[in-house]
């Protein structure tokens, strides 16, 4: 008795021939063989798609197909993808979204005076009379040297740490003040 293609004669009947025995290399790389009645099908494993004209499984670029799959950065790899976060953020447990890192609470004494968390970063703030230097340190502002004081023209301005003072000099009788000297 002759059986149709994909079937074999066994125990007096035509039965399906399993073309997908263990270790079979009948299907291309990155695919699995699935037996069907009288034939078989090669199914690409997750992360791959069948390129019919070349009969092989090619990587699916999930980052191009679904550009919003990752909140910040998507990296395609063979058969999959992974998400990355920008500096100042950490990947959440869902492996797709990112959360802001609070650098101020994570790093003790990050700023010399006061630290304010911002999205993806932080900002150091100094008290009045000081400016932020090198991003984290407070430097005294010399109002006298910069001319940002409010002393009278005939006063003497003296810079103090975080402040300034205006001193008025009175000349002895018979003398006259020249400018602010």
TrEMBL record:
Location, primary (coarse class): secreted
This protein's GO CC annotations: cell periphery; extracellular region
Keyword Disulfide bond set for record: yes
InterPro entries: EGF, EGF-like_Ca-bd_dom, EGF-type_Asp/Asn_hydroxyl_site, EGF_Ca-bd_CS, Growth_fac_rcpt_cys_sf, NOTCH1_EGF-like, vWF_C/EGF_Fibrillin
Domain EGF-like: 16-58, 59-99, 100-139
Keywords from the UniProt entry: Disulfide bond, EGF-like domain, Glycoprotein, Repeat, Secreted, Signal
Pfam families (UniProt xref): EGF_CA (PF07645)
Superkingdom classification of source: Eukaryota
Compartments where located: Secreted
One Gene Ontology molecular-function label: calcium ion binding
Protein name per its UniProtKB record: EGF-like domain-containing protein
Annotated organism of origin: Rotaria sordida
């Amino acid at each position: 008795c002759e059986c149709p293609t994909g079937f074999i004669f066994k125990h007096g009947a035509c039965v399906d021939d399993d073309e997908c025995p263990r270790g079979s290399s009948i299907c291309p790389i990155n695919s699995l063989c699935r037996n069907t009645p009288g034939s078989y099908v090669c199914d690409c494993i997750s992360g791959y798609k069948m390129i019919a004209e070349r009969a092989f499984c090619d990587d699916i670029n999930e980052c191009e197909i679904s550009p919003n799959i990752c909140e910040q950065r998507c990296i395609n790899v063979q058969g999959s993808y992974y998400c990355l976060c920008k500096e100042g953020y950490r990947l959440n447990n869902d492996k797709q979204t990112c959360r802001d890192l609070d650098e101020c609470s994570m790093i003790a004494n990050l700023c010399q005076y006061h630290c304010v968390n911002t999205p993806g970063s932080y900002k150091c703030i100094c008290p009045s009379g000081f400016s932020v230097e090198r991003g984290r340190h407070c430097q005294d502002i010399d109002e006298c040297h910069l001319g940002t004081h409010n002393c009278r023209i005939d006063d003497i301005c003296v810079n103090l740490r975080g402040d300034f003072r205006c001193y008025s000099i009175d000349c002895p009788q018979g003398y006259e003040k020249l400018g602010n000297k």
